[in-house]
Design a protein that fits this description.
This protein has 5 helices and 14 strands. It folds into 2 domains: 54 residues, no CATH class; 161 residues, Glucose Permease (Domain IIA), CATH 2.70.70. Strand 8 and strand 9 form a beta hairpin. It starts with 5 loop residues before the first helix and ends with a strand. By secondary structure, it is of the alpha+beta class.
């Protein structure tokens, strides 16, 4: 006997005899092929009816309500994640830009003096020996006289940037490259000496920070400020208000000003040269 006998299948029939008590007995005869055709036609018509109902009537809302709700929730989660990724990408770009500017500032600070003829500073001109303004304080007059003395003797004089108590000293062995002044937030911060601002922006680690480039290869750094009053490429005089102290950035445990002095790319102890 063959595994598949077409003649046997074609001749095979089903007999259905309903048992109705109030009618005569009838016998219905169906071949296998006819039954298969009827089944396919019925299935096809049933699918057409179901598709029509789902496409025209609101029944599909009840059938797929759970699936639709899950899809909506997943879509909202994807949109939220995409928004967070865009925000994080923008923040990373800002941090990368700030780091590049800091690298540029430190490279620029290694020069012995400010070269005003450099095309980088073509829009900046430093006025020398300006007349003292009418009025002002005795402190301002005194600092201007010291600036003139500095220019004539080719030496720098540094004043303390704030009025406060030193809470942490210079300790390069432990990575503390400056000194900390314990002052309340919002205290005025002054330029320790005259020069040009080569960095003035926010950094994640040190908060609002300013770097000033001075003559003879000196730079001063002011960290954790609450507000910066001078912008990059501004010239400042000694004793000029440049910022307000604060508690910004990750590397801080309380309101204070972190102050550093570097000379030709190396940190030095500010207490050794500051005039108190």
């Amino acid at each position: 006997m063959k595994w598949f006998n077409w003649d046997f299948i074609r001749k095979t029939t089903f007999h259905i005899t309903p048992n109705y008590p109030d009618s005569s007995t009838k016998n219905y005869k169906f071949s296998v092929l006819r039954l298969a055709v009827y089944t396919l036609i019925y299935t096809f018509i049933a699918w057409l009816v179901l598709i029509f109902i789902l496409s025209v009537t609101p029944l599909k809302e009840f059938i797929f309500v759970l699936d639709n709700q899950e899809l909506i929730e997943q879509k909202n989660k994807i949109n939220d994640l995409q928004l967070k990724v865009e925000v994080l990408t923008e923040q990373l770009q800002k941090i990368a830009s700030t780091n590049e500017r800091m690298k540029f500032a430190l490279k620029l600070a290694k020069s012995d003096s400010i070269n005003a003829s450099n095309p980088l500073y073509d829009t900046l001109k430093k006025t020398i020996n300006k007349k003292l303004p009418v009025g002002g304080s005795i402190y301002k007059v005194f600092t201007d006289l010291l600036n003139n003395f500095k220019q004539s003797n080719s030496s720098l004089i540094f004043f303390e940037p704030v009025t406060g108590v030193i809470t942490q000293n210079f300790n390069p062995d432990r990575g503390h490259l400056g000194i900390d002044y314990g002052v309340i937030s919002g205290s005025p911060v002054y330029a320790a000496s005259g020069g040009m601002v080569i960095f003035s922006d926010y950094t994640a680690e040190d908060g609002f920070m300013m770097i000033i480039n001075h003559d003879n290869g000196y730079i001063t750094i002011y960290k954790h400020c609450s507000s910066l009053l001078k912008k990059q490429r501004d010239f400042v005089k000694q004793g000029e208000l440049i910022a307000l102290s604060g508690n910004s950035g990750k590397n801080t445990t309380g309101p204070h000003l972190h102050f550093e002095i570097w000379h030709k790319g190396k940190p030095i102890n500010p207490e050794e040269i500051l005039i108190k």
